[in-house]
Write a structure and sequence with these properties.
Length: 429
């Protein structure tokens, strides 16, 4: 959530920055609410002072033996109390509307974020590795999966509908190996704490990281059969429970930064992706991901973003995959992000780069919603900065491996770093 002081003190700049994200901020509605809030606050303070002064006067009148005057003043004070109650109720309504407006307003883009409307305006920062060359007609992951009997979209559709897959045999083995490879790398080389998290979370938890209330249609909701009880949501990413581990807490300065890694299934309704990536397993309702989360001191979050990006890059470099790094433009930034690097891996079957990891600095946007703080050098509570990134998406990484390491005979050469997990150097249909 944006700092309300920013809107009050620098509204013009906030509106301009939000426009870089493609958002037209409703200035008229905001100013009307804010004007009403200030008016009610001043009225409340005036009445509170009157009541306080009146109470003192009652005491003096009683001391002087002027009971009738004191009783009359008591009646006036009671009337002030009634007025206060009505004004405070109206204030809460107005404040609630302001909070709702803020909850639906995205984070501001950092100055280093390029201008632009969509992915076509993202800026390429680097190319890593070499594009593979093949002396034969390349297959995409769907064709390779058919050779192995490793990907079954039809059976999954019978079980759950479209955008699901069942993974079998060597492909399931490869999927598991990728998970273990990434977890081992991030815990042993990069210093993350491996964490197991719930897959179902309450609504306020998703509000904390910014998925609610604005993106409810992208979530899978689990409601009790009787219509009562506790409503929960399937997590769209492990970022949600990992980041909320510091919710409503004050962290010791000496413990920062915190670095968490988790492997989880992720669940997304993909409400806004109708007609996109309908073939294959690139865009699924259920997929696995290894997620990285940082909780940092505000002074170190930009340095942390570069480290986070490097950790995600090391996964792809270790696998010998060709990829590029792009700086997302304002119009392509996520709701909570102030800046995002996307890693896009080369997929020969699609003949293009596709996103496999997003690494974002959210600054204090999420921590303000969660009230996640640390005690600074002066001993005062201060909001932490939060960062998250995929380290990386397992299904998309599987696609990249089988397409980039395919052989003419249909076999797949196993990347060297995965051989200790798979116990072979080649997968054969």
């Amino acid at each position: 959530m944006l700092d309300p002081k920013l809107l009050r003190n620098d509204l013009e700049n906030v509106v301009a920055q939000l426009a870089r994200k493609g958002l037209h901020f409703d200035v008229t509605s905001y100013q009307a609410l804010e004007t009403k809030r200030r008016s009610l606050q001043l009225e409340t303070e005036s009445l509170q002072n009157k009541r306080k002064d009146g109470s003192k006067a009652v005491g003096l009148l009683m001391k002087d033996g002027k009971k009738p005057e004191a009783e009359e003043l008591k009646t006036e004070i009671a009337e002030i109390g009634v007025q206060l109650g009505a004004i405070e109720a109206e204030f809460q309504t107005v404040q609630g509307a302001l909070n709702q407006l803020l909850m639906e307003t995205p984070n501001l883009p950092d100055a280093s974020v390029p201008d632009g409307f969509d992915e076509n305006d993202n800026v390429e920062l680097s190319l890593v590795g070499e594009k593979p060359s093949f002396g034969f007609s390349v297959r995409d992951h769907i064709e390779i999966g058919e050779l192995f009997g490793g990907l079954d979209f039809d059976r999954a559709a019978q079980l759950s509908g479209s955008r699901f897959v069942t993974i079998h045999g060597e492909f399931a083995r490869l999927h598991r190996a990728l998970v273990q490879y990434m977890l081992d790398m991030h815990t042993e080389q990069h210093g993350y704490l491996e964490t197991y998290v719930p897959l179902l979370v309450d609504g306020p938890i998703l509000e904390g990281t910014g998925q609610l209330p604005k993106f409810k249609d992208d979530l899978f909701r689990i409601a009790p059969d009787d219509g009562g009880g506790r409503e929960r949501y399937l997590i769209p990413t492990a970022e949600v429970p990992l980041t909320n581990l510091v919710r409503d807490s004050i962290i010791d300065l000496a413990k920062l930064p915190l670095q968490y890694v988790a492997h989880t299934p992720c669940f997304r309704a993909e409400a806004g992706s109708y007609g996109r990536d309908v073939r294959g397993m690139f865009r699924q309702h259920q997929f696995d991901k290894v997620e990285l989360v940082w909780i940092t001191h505000p002074d170190h979050s930009w340095e942390a973003l570069e480290s986070l990006r490097g950790h995600a890059e090391s996964v792809l470099s270790g696998l010998g995959l060709h990829f590029r790094v792009v700086n997302l433009c304002g119009g392509d930034l996520g709701f909570s992000a102030a800046k995002t690097y996307d890693l896009e891996v080369w997929l020969p079957g699609q003949n293009q780069f596709r996103e496999i990891s997003s690494c974002s600095n959210c600054m204090d946007f999420q921590s303000r919603r969660m009230q996640a703080r640390f005690r600074n050098e002066q001993g005062k509570p201060e909001l932490v900065h939060t960062l998250n990134g995929s380290g990386v998406a397992i299904g998309r990484c599987l696609i990249a491996v089988v397409e980039n390491y395919q052989n003419e005979d249909g076999s797949i050469t196993v990347p060297e770093v995965l051989r200790p997990y798979i116990k072979t150097d080649r997968l054969t249909p």
